Amino acid sequence: MYSTIGELRRGNRRRGALPGETAPHTDQADAVFAQQDTYGDSGFAGVSKAVRALGVSDAAIVRLNYKRNTVDVDDAINQLKLQKPPIKAVVMVATYRAAAKFIEKTHDLFPGMIYTNVSFVGSTALADELMLLGPRYASGVIVTQVVPAVSGYSSIVLEYKNALANFSRRAPDYVSLEGYVAANVLIQGLKRAGPQLDTEKLIDVLENTRNFDLGLGASLGFGRAEHKLRTRFGEPRLMTTGSTRP
Question: DSSP strand E in 77-138: where?
Answer without folding.
Answer: 89-93, 114-117
